[in-house]
Write a structure and sequence with these properties.
The chain has 15 helices and 21 strands. By secondary structure, it is of the alpha+beta class. The protein folds into three domains: about 90 residues, Pdz3 Domain (Roll); about 210 residues, 2-enoyl-CoA Hydratase, Chain A, domain 1; about 90 residues, no CATH class. Strand 17 and strand 18 form a beta hairpin. Helix 6 packs parallel to helix 7 and helix 11 crosses helix 13. The longest helix is centred in the first third of the chain and has 50 residues. About 35% of the residues are buried. The C terminus is likely disordered.
C-alpha cells in the first residue's frame, strides 16, 4: 500500500483537486454568469431611465422586471406590491377594514349596489343606488371599482369622507364613515332552494372557508336539507388548506384528497381524510364553469374521482399548479409555483400554457369541447380526463348576452338605474317580479332617458329584460341575496342540478355499497 501511494501520489493529488475544486469552479462559473446577467440588466435599466421620453420610476422598472422573470416560469407565479399583498391577506383572512358596501363602477361615478346589513355605511344611512362622487376629496370620474376599493379600505377607525349623489336630491350628501371590520365570507350564499334541497355558493377559499361551510351545512340540515347543490362557478380558488378542509367534510374515511409533487415529480405528498372520518350521507351536485379554478378544482376533482357526487356546467379553468406565498420585506409578497397537484385518480388538470400567456388567459370556450387529455378511472370505473380542467358529467352551453342586453345592462346600466327609480317612486315588495305594469313603466322611463329601444328588440328580449329587472329590483330593495334567489329560479345550471340529483343519489348509494364490500382505495389509474 505504501509503495502504491509513493508511485501514484501525484495522480491522487490531481484527482482530489478536481473533485474538490470542480464543484467550486462550477459554482464560481454559475455565480459569474449570474453576475454578468445582473450587470446587463442594470445597464439596460440605466439606459431606459436615461434615454426614454417618459422614463418610468425605479419602482415601476423593478416591478415589471420581476413580473417578466416570473412569467418565464409559468402563468401563476406572481409578485405583489404592498397594496396587492395587503388585499390578498385580507381576502385570505376573511375580513378587512372598510365601509361595508358592495360597489360597482358606473358612468356617473361609483355606485352603491348594496350596503352590508349592519355595516358602517348602512348604519349611517348610505342607500342602494347612491353614487359616490368623491372619496376623501378625490373625484370618482373614471375611477375603477378596484381603485375605489383601495381608497375605501384602510386602517380601523379612520374616517372615509364621501360625497354622494342621491336620486331626488339637488346637492351632494356628505358622509364621514369610520372604517370598521367587514367580514368577507367565502360562503356567499346559503339557503334552501326547496323543502329538501340546500344550496351553498362559495366565492373563494380563505382561512375561514372550511368552518363557514361546516356551519352552513349544519344550518341547512336543521331546515330540512336532504341533498345539496354546491356552486363553485366563478370561484378562482385560494388557500389549499380550505379546499382540503371541505373535502374532509364531504368524503368518507381514509380517502385520498390530493397529491402534490415538487420539481421533476419528486417529493410526493399525499393528503387523505382521517381513518375515523364520518361520511355525511346527502346526495351532492357541484356546479362549475370556466371561472372555477385551483382550490375549487381540487374539491371538484376529489368529489368526482371518488364518485361522491355529480358535476354540472362547463369545463373548469385547469390550474393544477400550487403556489407558496412568500413574504418579502414584510409588506410585499411572492406567489411562487412550488409543486403540481393531482386529483385522487392521478389526474393533472393543468391546462397547457406552452403556446403563450395570451392563449392561456383567453381560452376559446367552444374549442375542443370534447376531452383531449389522458383517461383515468373513478372509484366506480367511470372515465374522467386530465390535462385541461375538470370536465363536468353534464355539460351545459355557455350563455352569452346579445348586444342589445349588453348595452342596456352594462353600458347604460338601465336595469339598475330603473330599479333605484322604482324603489323611490313606487316601492318594491319582497320577492316581487317585474310584471306588465312594471315593464310599461320601464319602457316610459327608458324613452325619457333617451335610451334607444327598437320595437323588435323590445319584443325579442322582453323575457330577459323582465328577469333582469326582477333581479335588480330585489338587489336594490333587499340586498344581493334577495336578487340572487330570483336569479336561481331560471338558472340553467341550478335547474339541471335539480334534475340530476336523483342520479347523484343513486351514484352515492353505489359508492356506499362498494365501501361496505372493501376498504376505500385510490381510484384506478
Amino acid at each position: 500500500m505504501a509503495r502504491f501511494l509513493k508511485r501514484n501520489w501525484m495522480w491522487m493529488v490531481m484527482v482530489a483537486t478536481v473533485l474538490v475544486a470542480g464543484p467550486l469552479l462550477a459554482r464560481a462559473n454559475g455565480e459569474g454568469v449570474r453576475q454578468r446577467s445582473l450587470d446587463t440588466l442594470t445597464e439596460v435599466m440605466d439606459l431606459v431611465q436615461k434615454d426614454t421620453p417618459e422614463p418610468p420610476t425605479p419602482r415601476q422598472l423593478t416591478h415589471a422586471t420581476i413580473q417578466g422573470m416570473l412569467h418565464t416560469l409559468d402563468p401563476h407565479s406572481n409578485y405583489m406590491d404592498e397594496t396587492e399583498f395587503r388585499m390578498l391577506r385580507e381576502e385570505q383572512k376573511g375580513s378587512f377594514y372598510g365601509i361595508g358596501a358592495i360597489i360597482q363602477q358606473h358612468e356617473q361615478g361609483i355606485a352603491i349596489i348594496s350596503p352590508m346589513k349592519g355595516g358602517p355605511a348602512d348604519r349611517l344611512g348610505v342607500r342602494s343606488g347612491d353614487i359616490i362622487k368623491e372619496i376623501d376629496g378625490t373625484s370618482t370620474d373614471g375611477m375603477t371599482s378596484n381603485g375605489a376599493l383601495q381608497k375605501l379600505r384602510g386602517e380601523k377607525g379612520v374616517l372615509v369622507e364621501l360625497a354622494i349623489q342621491r336620486t331626488g336630491m339637488a346637492g351632494l350628501l356628505k358622509f364621514s364613515i369610520p372604517r370598521a371590520e367587514v367580514p368577507t365570507n367565502s360562503v356567499y350564499y346559503s339557503f334552501m332552494l326547496n323543502p329538501t334541497t340546500g344550496f351553498i355558493l362559495i366565492k373563494d377559499f380563505g382561512e375561514t372557508t372550511s368552518e363557514e361551510f361546516e356551519k352552513a351545512v349544519t344550518t341547512l340540515k336543521k331546515l330540512g336539507m336532504k341533498q345539496l347543490i354546491l356552486d363553485l362557478r366563478g370561484d378562482g380558488g385560494g388557500v389549499l388548506d380550505a379546499a382540503i378542509g371541505i373535502c374532509r367534510q364531504l368524503l368518507g374515511p381514509d380517502q385520498l384528497i390530493v397529491s402534490q409533487k415538487g420539481r421533476d415529480g419528486r417529493d410526493e405528498n399525499q393528503t387523505r381524510t382521517s381513518k375515523g372520518a364520518m361520511l355525511d350521507p346527502f346526495p351532492l351536485v357541484i356546479l362549475i364553469n370556466r371561472g372555477t379554478a385551483s382550490a375549487s378544482e381540487i374539491v371538484t376533482g376529489a368529489v368526482q374521482d371518488h364518485d361522491r357526487g355529480l358535476v354540472v356546467g362547463q369545463t373548469s379553468w385547469g390550474k393544477g399548479l400550487v403556489q407558496s406565498v412568500l413574504t418579502i420585506s414584510r409588506s410585499r409578497g411572492l406567489a411562487l409555483t412550488t409543486a403540481r397537484y393531482y386529483t385522487p385518480s392521478g389526474r393533472s388538470i393543468q391546462r397547457d400554457y406552452s403556446h403563450g400567456l395570451d392563449d392561456y388567459y383567453n381560452p376559446e370556450d367552444d374549442k375542443d369541447a370534447k376531452p383531449q387529455g389522458p383517461a383515468y378511472k373513478t372509484d366506480l370505473g367511470r372515465t374522467v380526463y386530465g390535462g385541461g380542467g375538470i370536465n363536468p358529467d353534464y355539460t351545459l352551453p355557455t350563455l352569452r348576452l346579445n348586444e342589445f342586453m349588453v348595452d342596456l345592462q352594462f353600458r347604460q346600466q338601465a336595469f339598475f338605474r330603473f330599479a333605484v327609480h322604482e324603489k323611490e317612486q313606487v316601492g318594491i315588495k319582497p320577492g316581487q317580479h317585474a310584471d306588465e305594469a312594471t315593464m310599461a313603466r320601464f319602457h316610459t322611463w327608458a324613452l325619457e332617458q333617451k335610451l334607444t329601444i327598437a320595437d323588435k328588440d323590445w319584443e325579442a328580449n322582453l323575457p330577459a329584460m323582465q328577469e333582469r329587472l326582477s333581479i335588480e329590483m330585489q338587489n336594490v330593495a333587499y340586498g344581493v341575496e334577495a336578487g340572487f334567489k330570483i336569479q336561481c329560479e331560471k338558472d340553467p345550471g341550478i335547474l339541471k342540478a335539480l334534475e340530476v340529483l336523483p342520479e347523484a343519489e343513486t351514484l352515492f348509494k353505489k359508492k356506499q355499497l362498494l365501501g361496505s364490500e372493501k376498504p376505500a382505495t385510490v381510484a384506478a389509474r
